[in-house]
Every structure is written in C-alpha cells, then in structure tokens.
Amino acid sequence: MNPSAQPTAEVQSARVPEHEVSPLILNRWSPRSFLERDIPEEDLLALFEAARWAPSASNEQSWRFILARKPEDRAIFYEFINPSNRVWCEKAPALALVLSKKTNAQGQFHAFHAFDTGTATGLLALEATRRGLNTHSMGGFDRDKARSILGISDEFDLHSVIAIGYRGPKEVLPEALQAREQPSTRRPLSEILFEGKM
C-alpha cells in the first residue's frame, strides 16, 4: 500500500484529523518492533536527502547525523543507549544520532539550531514513511558518553538517536511494550492553536 494514498486501518482507528491532511502525516508513527532486514542504500540515503532540504534560518543548515548501519558501528551506539531502549532498538538495521551545530558561520550562537534540526528530522521521518520504513526517535541515551565515544566536540548539541527500519510484529517485544505498539492520538487543535493571543 502507498502510505501517502490513505490512512492505514490501525491509524484510522486512532487518528482522526479535524481537517484534511496528507495520509502520509497520519501514517507516520513510532513503532518499537523492527525486522532485522537491511535497508537498500538508495532508500536509506534518501531519508537524509529529505532532511537536507529542510527550512533553515539564515540557511545555516545546522543539522548533522551520524549513521550506524554496520553491526560494529551499531554495537558502539549500544554503549550509550539506555537499556530500556536497547531492548527493542537492537533489531533496527540502522541508527542515527541527531546533532546540531550551536554556532553560525560567524561563530556566534545560533538561536534556531535546534528548531531547524527538529524540522529536518521531521522531514526524514516523513520520507521514511513514504518509503515503507519506520523511525523511532529516542531521547533515552547518555549524551556525555556518546560525545566521548564518537569524538563529538562541544560545538554540537546532541538531541536524539533514531532507529530506522521495517516494522516487525509486536509479539517480539516485551509484554509491557506490546500494549504501547500502536499509533498515538494527539491533542485537539483547540489546545495548541491560539488566535491573536493565548
């Protein structure tokens, strides 16, 4: 099924938009069960190509990604990912650490570095959905350890680790996670949109 053509059955039961949006947006969610199946090079790199074209304040393009797809590189990532996330993310065939450069081309603090990087990550997730892949961003990792192990300088902020791959059956997850393996709902528009003032 083309994920941009219509919402999946499980998404339709959990996600009812108040206004029409692309089914691609509704079909994007964050499963934890992944198949141990390699991702074709052209599909994997296309996700980062999508991120590359994100909007960027002053065109600074602050986002950076460190990709781990070889078994030995993923094993290094496992050293700084929290055990509660390792339980499921070790089956994902690719992991990516999301960083942003805190300064602009003039060496001054760039106030929008994290905002722009979040936008780039969102585009990456949508392109993954379009290609039949799933992503799950994790905040649960030791940033200091990741910085030390990967040799990342202080000019970068570390934001998340994204698990990337094909969705697997929920039955392979620990029982506590199986119940959570479904699309989540969202707050009503009235709780997030204010006109004129809050």
TrEMBL record:
GO molecular function: 3-hydroxypropionate dehydrogenase (NADP+) activity
UniProt-listed Pfam families: Nitroreductase
Keyword flag Transit peptide: no
Superkingdom classification of source: Bacteria
Keywords: Oxidoreductase
EC category name: oxidoreductase
InterPro entries named among the record's database cross-references: Nitroreductase
Family as reported in the entry's similarity comment: Belongs to the nitroreductase family.
Name of this protein: Malonic semialdehyde reductase RutE
